[in-house]
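Escalated from tier 1: adenosine-5'-triphosphate holo job.
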Amino acid sequence: MSSEHDAAKPTNFLRQVIERDLAQGSFQGRRFAGLPGDAAHHAAGPVDSARIRTRFPPEPNGYLHIGHAKSICLNFGLAADYGGICHLRFDDTNPEKEEQEYVDAIIEAVHWLGFDWNAGGVSHLYYASSYFDFMARAAEALIDDGLAYVDEQTPEQMRATRGDFNTPGTDSPFRDRSPADNRTRWAGMKSGRLADGAAVLRAKIDMASPNINMRDPAIYRIKHAAHHATGDAWCVYPMYTYAHPIEDALECITHSICTLEFEDQRPFYDWLLEHLARLGLLARPLPRQYEFGRLNVNGVLTSKRKLKAMVDERIVDGWDDPRMPTIFGLRRRGYTPASLRTMAERTGASKTNIWVDMSVLDGALREDLEGQAPRACAVLDPVELKLTNWSRVFGSEGHREPCQAPAHAQRPDLGTRHFELGPRVWIERDDFAESPTKGFFRLYPGNKVRLKYGLVVECTGCEKDAAGRVTSVLATVVPDTKSGTPGADAVKVKGTITWVSGHDAVAAEVRLYERLFTADQPDAEGRDFRSVVNPDSKRVVRAWVEPGVASCEAETRLQFERHGYFVADRVDHAPGRLVFNRITGLRDGRAK
Ligand code: ATP
Ligand code: MG
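Tier 2 regenerated the structure:
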């Protein structure tokens, strides 16, 4: 059981539960008939070859976000680590909000993160809506057993009789109807003749239960709405709390992992499955629900509804805006699947909701890219550097000095970059200071610096426009100081700066992103997140990049020396139109 793979991972309560179950053989001999189904279906099948089954059950009502990434990594990761299988299940029981666009996007996001639901040639991708027939049959079995009834109170009456934390609820006047009577009324609910809200089917449990979720929860409601998969076949739809346990059981899920807010639902989860198994409808052993703490990220919204509002109100440029915490946004921003998986692992699984900073993901990204991203030079805030003695030193203004640099100092296999130095160079505006502050070792009149991979130059002054803004920096080259040539180090300098040449650099649009909100909890205490949107979360600059970068493909990740990690934008970047997004800087310097 303890392969090297899991030994390397920190343990957590979910791993302990699974290890205990495997050690005790809790799920041994469990049958699985290849596809989801009821007790009879599975009883006819072989013993399940999967040691555990987990599932990731998104509702296809929006794009997945960083919190879902956590859940995906957890569910698929645990299945992989313990010889199990993880199902991808669309929890599409709510007819109104769900769309194919979201289904497709979720499939793509889970694949991109590196996970798959195919096992032994079987695709374990399921739709909760395909269980509607069974769910209705199960409801009828509950009615027949005296465990469910049709309630015709108004929604207001039902709310009023539910009680609260301190007060027990009171029984519905319709609670004690006979199963036969309830069957007739249930048929009425299904017939389409009743209006939405005219009746609900409720489980008959205990209106005085201290757990409000056990006070005869609604399990079916009337909703005259077409469903994206089942069309007009139904006008009654199961409630989530009823549907979810059944979905798990039909799929023979062993460990149903969900977030903490479902803890109070667990008694109903168990109540329902226990009765349906007793009635012979569901196979044993039954799934068990385990709750872990949500992942929250400082300065980030993780509510699909609010993210949708951001898109609809054009606060961002779409679901995949690189500032969005959606998986598509994170991907477009340049984060790697490995960095997200590392973040998920480092944030563990605990019994409390946790808050982390984006720096956890940034740190994981740097670790991932440090050893593999090719380096390149880029000047993001360019000012011209004129080398005024160029023709005297090299014989003509047209002379070009070939330079080279490793694509990655520790990775000779990534090859060598080639570019040239000429008399006109782009440097960063802040690499020059007319009057330097203490400790400034870069260009100022009288100081020498090395143009990295090139020559040493000595600053002689600058040119300014009428407004006093520096338009170009002036310097002379120091002969015989070319990097990599004998004696190049004879002239000592304290500063080295990056640069690109005026004649061979390529123009690029570079998008510099900052956090989208100025507050750590944008929606804390009912605050409208719109009031804390950071107006400077996106800055676009015209940059110059070294020539070799011109041919890179979309989604190529690079380290621009001194600046950080960047990615060629997967939507807008094309040969001839270079567009880069800054993923993160080289160090954790995230300003608040
Ligand atoms: P939202 O409230 O944004 O709609 P949700 O939880 O309703 O999110 P679902 O599609 O129901 O979205 O979620 C699918 C799975 O992802 C669930 O098992 C849910 O518990 C899990 N999940 C959602 N958000 C987080 C989070 N922040 N941290 C960990 N798991 C999460
Ligand atoms: Mg939900």
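Residues 133-238 form a domain with the Glutamyl-tRNA Synthetase; domain 3 fold (CATH 3.90.800.10).
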